[in-house]
Every structure is written in C-alpha cells, then in structure tokens.
Amino acid sequence: MLIVMDQKATPEEVNKVVAAIESKGYTARPIPGGERVAIGILNNEGPVDASLFLGLRGVKDAIPVTRPYKLANREFKPENTIVYVGDARIGEGNLTIIAGPCAIESESQALTIATHVQKAGAHLFRGGAFKPRTSPYSFQGLGEEGLKILKKVRDETGLPVVTEVMDPINFDLVEAYADIVQIGTRNMQNFSLLKRAGRSKRPILLKRGMAATIDEWLMAAEYILEGGNSQVILCERGVRTFVNHSRNTLDLSAVPVIRKESHLPIIIDPSHAAGKRDQVLPLSRAAVAVEAHGLMVEVHHAPEEAMSDGAQSLYPEQFEDLCIQVRSMFDVLHNR
Ligand code: PEP
Ligand code: MN
User: Which domains does the chain have, with CATH numbers?
Assistant: First the structure.
C-alpha cells in the first residue's frame, strides 16, 4: 500500500504516519516526490487495512499496490529514475550508448576499441573481466588484470566503465573499479549477488534472465532497491525461444511494459539478442523506436580474432554508422 500525503503535510505529520505504520509491524519507506511525500508500506503479509492510516493528520489517500514488486513499481514512485554516471545521464530524455568488446583481452585491445567508440559518440565503455562462459574451456576473462585495464581506459578517455560481477566473493573488487556493475542474464536470480548489489554504492545494470518474465525481472530489481541501492538500470538482452536465426529473441515489447510498470531506466543490448552482427543495427533502430533509454553494443576492431562473441561484434565503422542513425532517429522522435 502507498500512503499519499497532502501537499501541505509537515515533516512531523510524515514521521507520525511512519511511526503508525511501524507500530503495526510493517516497514515504512518514505518516498519524497516533486510535490508531495508518499510512504510505501512494505513487509505486509496480506492486505493492509487503509482505515488505520486514512484518519491521520496530513494523509490524503491510501492506494493499494497490486503488484508484487513495490519499490520498482511506478505506482510507488511516479517520477522516472535517472542514473548519473560521470557525464552520462541514463533515463528519460536521453539515449545513452554503452559500447566496447565482450571481454577485455589486453590493454592495447581495450584502448584501441575505447578510442573508436568514444570518437563515434559512446557515453560509456563496456568490457568483461569476469566472463560467464557456457564452456569451462572458453576464455574466462582476465579477472583483476582486466579491471586494471578498465581503469586505464577510464583514466585515458574519461569514459565511465561498465563490467560484470559474477559472484558475491568478487563484488568488492569489481565495484572498486567499475562505474556501473553489471549483473548478467545467468545471474538475474542469484539472490546473494542481488543482496550484495543492494548494498553497493555503484549503479547496477541488471540484465533480464534469458527465460525470465517481466515480473521475475522486476522482483530481481526489487532485491537491489530493497537493499538500499536505488540506482538500477534494466537491460533487455533477448530471451530464449525456439528460433535459430538469432541467438535469442529480442523482446522489444518489454520496453513499453517496463516503462509503464516501473520508473527504472531500460536499455537494450541488441548484440547478445542477435548473436550475429548484421542484425545489430536494425534491432538498435527498433530499440530507439520503442523508446528504450539506451543501447549496449559489442564492438571489436578485429572481431575475427576476438576471444568471445566475435560474430556479434560490430566493426568500428559499423558502430559509427549505428550511432549516427540512432541519434538522428532519437532526435526526430523528440522533435530536436
Ligand atoms: C555480456 O554482456 O557480456 C554478457 C555476458 O551478457 P548476457 O549476460 O546478456 O549474456
Ligand atoms: Mn558478449
């Protein structure tokens, strides 16, 4: 349930409502808004009796929240969440482009690609140091050495960096280097990882599980928000279907649904959805059309030599073209 306070409610009145909620054994979560404060009621098993709070001073309304996710829900927080990282602003009104290789392979590889994507207009650099690979015989990433290379990329280019964390044991290490910590599709329901992400000071890029429903995805985000970290970016990267013409099926309809259900920013990863580079541009264009807040694209200067995901990695010139196209589409849609 959401208790909506009157516009003129005083801080004392808000505190009294919080105390009343807590006296019933619930958790109260005040959410300051542009015009008024709302107070979310959490930890209730079953329905909450609105009449307990409607009579209190300063209370305007009590709205039942029907969805299982509360903090990720737009009913709870109508204003869009904007995540700020370095010079990047991720959320409504912007099209943020994150680009880089699947995996950090060496300093020269990372710096070469970073220089290209920055020139093309990327706002953030991506690259995995800890790689979740299907086969134990595949390249697993450079680990801490890869993180140090990411730091070098940030120092030399000024681009904030995004990198994946695979387990709670490495979280301290990854967040010490990353500007945004990524949780991958295979870990979307790794609840210890989500709880640790909730205690992080870094924004979390939460990819959709490859077979997760939107409700499950938002419940995963809820773990992070509930832990106290309000900076969550959702990333649709395709779901597993029966098709074999692409690696996954990009669920573009997730974007309007998330935009309606949640205040969190949502970006699209066309690369892992496609699995093939010729599909990345059309899917990126479609992502802009459905009003995603950004894109995360894999780019490699020599994809035929890439240690992972070469087939879906764009050549730098293709990425440059993609940036030009999606930016002009975005400008048209926003009458710029
Ligand atoms: C990645 O972004 O490098 C990655 C492994 O993606 P996903 O978790 O979507 O497969
Ligand atoms: Mn990849």
Answer: 2-63 (3.30.70.1140), 83-333 (3.20.20.70)
